[in-house]
Target: Beta-mannosidase B
Amino acid sequence: MAFYQQQLSTGWTFRDRDSEQSDLDTWMPVPAIPSTVQQDLIANNKLENPYIGFNELKARWVNEKSWVYRHEFQRPKIPTGAKVALGFDGLDTFASVTLDGKTILESDNMFLGHRVDITEALLKSTEGKKYVLEIEFDCAQSRAREIREKYPDHKWVGFNGDIARLAVRKAQYHWGWDWGPIIMTAGIWRDVRLEVYAARVADLWPKTTNIDFDGKRASVTAIAKIDASSSTSKDLKASFRVSLRGHEIARQDDISVNTTDQTAKVKFEITDPELWWPHGYGSQTLYEVTVSLSHDGTELHNTTKKFGIRSAETVQQPDKHGKSFFFRINGVDVFCGGSCWIPADSLLPSIDAERYRKWIELMVAGGQVMIRVWGGGIYEDEKFYEACDELGVLVWQDFMFGCGNYPAWPEILESIRQEAVYNVQRLRHHPSIVIYVGNNEDYQVQEQAKLTYDYDDKNPNNWLKTDFPARYIYEKVLPEVVAEYSPATFYHPGSPWGDGKITSDPTVGDMHQWNVWHGTQEKYQIFATLGGRFNSEFGMEAFPHLSTIDYFVENDADKFPQSHVLDFHNKADGHERRLATYLVENLRTATDLETYIYLTQVVQAETMMFGYRGWRKQWGDSRHCGGALLWQLNDCWPTISWAIVDYFLRPKPAYYTVKRALRQLTVGVQREHHDWSVTHAQPPVKSGYELWVASSYRHEVLNATVELRFLSVVSGRDLRAPVVYDNVTITPNGTTDVLTNGVIDHIAEPEPHVLSARLWVDGQVVARDVDWPQPFKYLDLSDRGLEVRPETTRSAAGERQQILRVSARKPVKCLVFEERDGVRVSDSAMDIVPGDEQVVTITGLAEGDAPLKYRYLGQ
Ligand SMILES: *[C@@H]1O[C@H](CO)[C@@H](O)[C@H](O)[C@H]1NC(C)=O
Ligand SMILES: *[C@@H]1O[C@H](CO)[C@@H](O)[C@H](O)[C@H]1NC(C)=O
Ligand SMILES: *[C@@H]1O[C@H](CO)[C@@H](O)[C@H](O)[C@H]1NC(C)=O
Ligand SMILES: CC(=O)N[C@H]1CO[C@H](CO)[C@@H](O)[C@@H]1O
Model:
């Protein structure tokens, strides 16, 4: 018989397991599975949207309860010799599943999928009999606390959320984080289905090996795991096909299944393979492999997987800076500028494929090449990785551990091992995934809590006896799983981590640099000097767009920067003083909400610019910096956080400054830092400055021109004649120093001035950069003579678009356009200097729509 499956997505009801409250005691309808209990309560008018105002508090009672979900299905027809199974792709979290009152599954790990063979139970009845499937979800919050109490000898330390969370394999941000609410979801968060089959493909792994760039060939071993009833197993034949863009390029038929390990395996040699590349480096070619099972000439089941042919290395070599840490894809060194990713919603099943895709599209449009799936969230949905594969974004995949000293008793170790196997198996065909990382900041917890970590002790059994038993997870269990199930993918024990050295060591491994914002609260102007070999976290908070604040702040009276509800929507410890510090140090502050939002966004945009611009430059210095992943791309609810794009996918200005710093060709100009605070606001006497070009092209760019102007902030006139560097040859995938010893003599030229650089290639301006005197608060930025002239044109594709011609009489800082849903601006957060008109393209604005609002510093 052919494989038959039925999604059990509708027809469910649910109720509070223990409630004596009558209205929650009755079965309520569930709109659709997958879901969370919060979504289902909202649908039944039992809960208000927890994202608005203080509603999160009104939703806390849900966190404390246990729930039951119920479904009835009819016994399907079961042909002789067939198997029947229930497949659960994810249960959140303490789930007890019964079929007609008999327990068939107990699960306590949200990250695991399960299959339960129910053939025997169903064969006892006849076709059409009704079966009751019930899933009880025990309260994870109280179960976590109970487990914690059961193990008083473990050192329960860490940061963020109720630390009892460490005891439970459930997304850790559900317990609340410094950017997220406490929403303890429960429910059937991924698909459930009923399957009837004689044989099925349980797994298909296109394992690419021997990628030989020069000889232009690659081997792909396709390994299919088979699940078949004993009567079918023997005479099963597998047929494998490989195709590219819908055309079959190779096939192998009549392959027998090895009945010992239930595997069918073939090897394809692909000549002249089209490689998969991150965007900006080449195409995102995806091949397809299909395996089809047949018995006596009848097809029983088939499965298809898309895969890419590429090599990925994490290059760690001793060098003049210590030990490198960067990625090499298909032999090409790739500076990995990108972002860290948190789950895009606190209510996970509400994220559909389109929303995942829009996030990844935003990354690509922003020039970002790597996304880090952070360890306090989830192993993401298929749709997430598919979007990364198709659009060319590299994935740094953390295992799901974050900010804590995790326990490692035998049962939890076994659960973690299963979780790792399940997810690595599920994800290993995605070419976008180039690294697996053991955890987020758990080695920092080890350092801060002074837990035992003797790097030289290589006996794993000893690690389990220390007060830092999770070392066994990060340095034994997880690397073993990756080595077995995805051997070509690099494994790194933690983020940050570097050869067992202190995690803040800038010479080795990756680094989370939080001494801007947290820690010593350094000035963001020196961000580039604070980096390590790979900066996998750093950030600066900014308020989201006003329309996002309008969504969650219900009363106009609360729309001021320090209102109670706005503070409630900022979960970061000390956010008031940290935001205030950076504002007060740098800008003339304001109390009206719109200006305040803008000012926090300017600070964030500048912080990111100083980081990315400098680290990109360091890439050219023997890969001193291999990449930068800002904290954080996104939000899980409408909030005030370090995100550069808010919950509703509205970019903050920093999105554009990062985009500019990551262009394939960029120009940079930067004067040396003069700390106005420690010198008691004495102006500098002299400032050295540097001028350079950064390139991620693989070829030299010949005959480029770099121009540098010296413009008065006060009058807008050129204080010196521009300097033009002609016939510049731009080094491939590195940095070209144009000038390393420029000097501004502030005595001779006392007027504050900007350094304005432009890069021309083939007669076109391809990049700009403007360096400003710091801090902005000392500058009079009034009366800039800014002109924004709209024109309507058509794009090459015939689409109506608006262009804005932007010019100014005096230098303008951080011109930001309104973000309107459905409307895209080609650029924003721009600096404008006299004599250099810039063009911004706007798409999605219909005739008669109000023009986009804009503002700039000092307006
Ligand atoms: C079948 O699988 C077993 C276990 O992996 C292996 O030892 C054996 O060599 C395989 N047989 C064939 C014919 O490949
Ligand atoms: C795979 O199975 C589906 C469903 O039975 C069938 O429609 C399809 O033709 C099969 N595809 C291949 C390539 O065998
Ligand atoms: C431009 O630079 C190249 C490479 O350094 C050199 O060969 C060429 O002569 C230069 N052309 C001019 C016009 O200076
Ligand atoms: C493949 C490739 O692009 N390699 C270049 C990367 O950058 C180094 C240093 O700039 C060059 O020497 C390589 O040729």
